[in-house]
Amino acid sequence: MPTDYKPRLHIPTPVSRPGDTPDFSRLDLSAAGAIRRPETCAAEAQMRDIPFALIRVLDDAGQAVGPWNPQLPPEVLRRGLRAMLVTRVFDDRLFRAHRQGKTSFYMKSTGEEALAVAPSLMLGRHDMSFPTYRVLGWLMARDYPLVDLCHQIFSNARDPLKGRQLPILYSARDYGFYSLSGNVGSRFGHAVGWAMASAYRGEDHVALAYIGEGTTAEGDFHEALTFASVYRAPAILCVTNNQWAISSFAGIAGGEETTFAAKAIGYGLPGLRVDGNDFLAVWAAVAWAAERARAGQGATLIEFFTYRAAGHSTSDDPTRYRPADEAAHWPLGDPVDRLKAHLIAIGEWDEERHAVLLADLDRDVRAAVKEAEQTGTLGNSKPPVAEMFEGVFKELDWRLIEQRREVEA
Amino acid sequence: MNMIQAINSALEVMMARDDAIVVMGEDVGYFGGVFRATAGLQKKFGKTRVFDTPITECGIIGVAVGMGAYGLRPVPEIQFADYIYPALDQLVSEAARLRYRSDGEFIAPLTVRSPFGGGIFGGQTHSQSPEGIFTHVSGLKTVIPSTPYDAKGLLIAAIEDNDPVIFFEPKRIYNGPFNGHWDRPAENWSKHPAGEVPSGYYRIPLGKANVVREGEAVTILAYGTMVHVCLNVVAEAGVDAEVIDLRTLVPLDIETIEQSVRKTGRCMIVHEATRTSGYGAELAALVQERCFYHLEAPIERVTGFDTPYPHSLEWAYFPGPVRIGMALKKILKD
């Protein structure tokens, strides 16, 4: 034992800060196709190596390899590419709309489009996602009207949520998209309850919940995993590990000593750790977990390993806490580029079609923004003030009726 | 029936009527609850409808919200109101706001049952009356029964309500009405008219107070255990008070309160909860705003003191007959 041994407080610190050269050499990334795919009915105890590996399908040459290849038809791949692209185009356009004062707030999901789009396309109409504020791709994959997104972001008279919610905190039940809220983590357990209700009813609908790696530190994460395990809820619990929680790197959330997928082991749940920028790997992992859930085998924890390429929000400047070019050095690349390369590699896509699609999507997004602007942007158009009092309860009580009179007087 | 049996009966009646109703909480399943409120229900309705949960109040309410979003009508139990705080985020940020923020796409039709109140030597963490925390939250309803008959009718109404309801059960009067004299033999519900509880379905609408004693001299606003304490003090003092059992704090029956105070010209508010920012403050403000020109004396509040709930000094803390009697004298002086 060293004589100078003494306890000391350890404060996790990222490898690179502003001005440093980005360095991801510490990451231990499995090769595409290298990780075994257990049977979906296998016991959790038989797969405790999986949460420490990284499930990947697309290799550097753009080929889909290994046992997790979901063997998707090209039209599904193209649909996925389209939904990811429109998410990115929309994000860029609406981020700019914030800079122009058309909305009060915006958050991009750049770099994380695959982990939103693939599950949305993979799961069915009766399944429900319990999103974070960074999975717009879920709605894009299900063709949620762009103009209604803009109405919500502009909080105008046609805002589907009547101006009650911050921009991007959507709710879209018909699209399998649960009501968002600004407080983090508190809906992770709702997904488990929803899944328990489905099982109680004898229905095979599954719930898919997202939580950021930073938010895994909230008690909600522990509670959801405990309930999911105890009641074998048909839930797919996904940690989006994009390395950053605003300015805090994943080490601050407990990611330095273990993986987030490995946290499943303590709860007796299978944990999958997946290349979150690999559309095919994300699809395959969710399909695996969904099959397991529908077969009554219970919940799965999935860690989507990715990188938050943009700032946290319109209120954040990431160059103040990480190297400005860190995203460009992320070893798992970009989800849109990788799926595009795969489609080209298998002869189902080319640069020309890609350029045409991009131009189409850009036109669609511009048209939607323009249409929503005709109703009004932030402050230029508002829902009727009476809407402020509706929906607190099913019916207004006397207090709300009196208070409504105050503003209408 | 005593109040426990009435609550049990309400759950049984409603579960038989609607298979969307599930009961969940710590020890509520096989064991039937630490107060026996869910006794026999698991045997009758099965393990998937009445089940034990892990010890996590935040988890219980969070999961119940998700079940409600699916279309069930969960009736979660929090073993003691003193332990509801870990679930505050779920109740305040989620259950209370889900309908509002989703414009009705998702709702949280939960009824959160929880034993509350003191008078049982429960000390700091088995005696609290946190209703004021919940009445302050827009989107929550708060209900507190004072008799077995009301407990059953109100619980049925709460379960049928499509908004989240906090249903606080005054555990001091689970077995019998409490007149405030802790040093005398306990009473039993079998001798009380409100201990007569129909075995079938009936409901008492939320938002309707009960004038339990009509009078002309002063209006007393109370709920839960304090209704019985007040009735007894009034009888012993021979004061012609009008005693109103609010039954639901949100929505509040403001009309009944207004009518009464305009008639009597005096208003006294009694609750076990600590005074500062307690529900009594809201009641006093409402009465002052609406009945100012009818008031003949300042509004009196008899409440728990602004301290944590003590153990050995319980009867000095509890707003019992002595303190209520003094306040009555004061308010009737002029």
Automatic annotation (TrEMBL), chain A:
<dbReference type="InterPro" id="IPR050771">
    <property type="entry name" value="Alpha-ketoacid_DH_E1_comp"/>
</dbReference>
<dbReference type="InterPro" id="IPR022593">
    <property type="entry name" value="Oxoisoval_DH_suAlpha_N_dom"/>
</dbReference>
<feature type="domain" description="2-oxoisovalerate dehydrogenase E1 alpha subunit N-terminal">
    <location>
        <begin position="7"/>
        <end position="41"/>
    </location>
</feature>
<keyword id="KW-0560">Oxidoreductase</keyword>
<dbReference type="InterPro" id="IPR001017">
    <property type="entry name" value="DH_E1"/>
</dbReference>
<dbReference type="GO" id="GO:0003863">
    <property type="term" value="F:branched-chain 2-oxo acid dehydrogenase activity"/>
</dbReference>
<comment type="function">
    <text>The branched-chain alpha-keto dehydrogenase complex catalyzes the overall conversion of alpha-keto acids to acyl-CoA and CO(2). It contains multiple copies of three enzymatic components: branched-chain alpha-keto acid decarboxylase (E1), lipoamide acyltransferase (E2) and lipoamide dehydrogenase (E3).</text>
</comment>
<comment type="similarity">
    <text>Belongs to the BCKDHA family.</text>
</comment>
<feature type="domain" description="Dehydrogenase E1 component">
    <location>
        <begin position="82"/>
        <end position="377"/>
    </location>
</feature>
<dbReference type="Pfam" id="PF00676">
    <property type="entry name" value="E1_dh"/>
</dbReference>
<keyword id="KW-0786">Thiamine pyrophosphate</keyword>
<feature type="region of interest" description="Disordered">
    <location>
        <begin position="1"/>
        <end position="23"/>
    </location>
</feature>
<dbReference type="Pfam" id="PF12573">
    <property type="entry name" value="OxoDH_E1alpha_N"/>
</dbReference>
<protein>
    <recommendedName>
        <fullName>2-oxoisovalerate dehydrogenase subunit alpha</fullName>
        <ecNumber>1.2.4.4</ecNumber>
    </recommendedName>
</protein>
<dbReference type="InterPro" id="IPR029061">
    <property type="entry name" value="THDP-binding"/>
</dbReference>
<dbReference type="GO" id="GO:0009083">
    <property type="term" value="P:branched-chain amino acid catabolic process"/>
</dbReference>
From TrEMBL, chain B:
<dbReference type="InterPro" id="IPR009014">
    <property type="entry name" value="Transketo_C/PFOR_II"/>
</dbReference>
<dbReference type="InterPro" id="IPR029061">
    <property type="entry name" value="THDP-binding"/>
</dbReference>
<dbReference type="InterPro" id="IPR005475">
    <property type="entry name" value="Transketolase-like_Pyr-bd"/>
</dbReference>
<protein>
    <submittedName>
        <fullName>Alpha-ketoacid dehydrogenase subunit beta</fullName>
    </submittedName>
</protein>
<keyword id="KW-0560">Oxidoreductase</keyword>
<feature type="domain" description="Transketolase-like pyrimidine-binding">
    <location>
        <begin position="1"/>
        <end position="176"/>
    </location>
</feature>
<dbReference type="Pfam" id="PF02779">
    <property type="entry name" value="Transket_pyr"/>
</dbReference>
<dbReference type="Pfam" id="PF02780">
    <property type="entry name" value="Transketolase_C"/>
</dbReference>
<dbReference type="GO" id="GO:0016491">
    <property type="term" value="F:oxidoreductase activity"/>
</dbReference>
<dbReference type="InterPro" id="IPR033248">
    <property type="entry name" value="Transketolase_C"/>
</dbReference>
<keyword id="KW-0786">Thiamine pyrophosphate</keyword>
